[in-house]
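ugh ok fine here u go
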Amino acid sequence: MRRTFQYLRSRAEAFIWIAGLTLMAAMPPTDEHASLCPLKASGFDFCPGCGLGHAVSWLFRGDIIHSFQAHPLGIAAVAILLWRIIVIFRKPVFYN
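structure:
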């Protein structure tokens, strides 16, 4: 039980990134959805964070052109997060 807890604790960041990517991939990119974004709530039309989420959603649907139009760094963000997840899972766990 303790080893399982240590394993999960040492990989928590990876699980958070996986959950975030999964939620953004499942999000419909064309729908205006309820948002907790402070910029959208303030009446601004453009939010780089929302654009990044839409870019990730388009990318997981295989539409690279719409992904790039939503946010030019969406592809890079997914690549960096996937690399980070791989690095986290490859590091050894030291049990006490």
